[in-house]
Amino acid sequence: MQPGNRKVILYIAMSLDGYIARPDGDISWLSVVEQEGEDYGYKSFTETVDTVIMGRKTYEKILSFGIEFPHKDKKVYVISRSRKGSDGNVEFSDNVDALLSNLKNTQGKNIYLDGGAELVNDMMQRDLLDEMIISVIPFMPGNGIRLFQEINKEHKLRLMDSQLFSSGLVQLHYLLESHA
Fold first, then answer.
1. What CATH number labels 8-179?
2. Which of these, 84, 100, 89, lies nearest to 59 by C-alpha position?
3. β-pairing, 131-137 with 8-15?
4. Gap between the Cα atoms of 144 and 18, Å rounded
5. 139-166 confidence digits (pLDDT tens)
């Protein structure tokens, strides 16, 4: 994509009652929709992006899985106030505004926002998201870490697509109207 045309897209799963994790960060309940051979469009989505942005807690959660880092083929930035520099997987940044301004003004594919809730809410508050693809899992943990907290401003969304899967997962693709 030409500079200025790159979109920041949130791709995330949440429970029907709006949580992305239990209070302790556990996300094992996501497995209720696991089906052999079904990735809910994740591979197709990741082919449209070349850059990933995530919060520090999300990054540390991924590392805790003890698997190979899943975004090795992408440029990955972790937004963190406490970590600087880079490690073998990512570059740390404490200024999401400057980072996005730079990324959106360079040629490349779309930008994948991989969570977590603090970063999503901060970016929503400052109108830094263009689209959201939210997979709603048919499960209600009852409490935990909410995807959307107090954003303190309204956002009008346009539904671009919705898909119902046999597992009961419903995937919703929204365009934030301020970016239409």
1. 3.40.430.10
2. 89
3. parallel
4. 9
5. 999 999 999 988 888 899 999 999 999 9
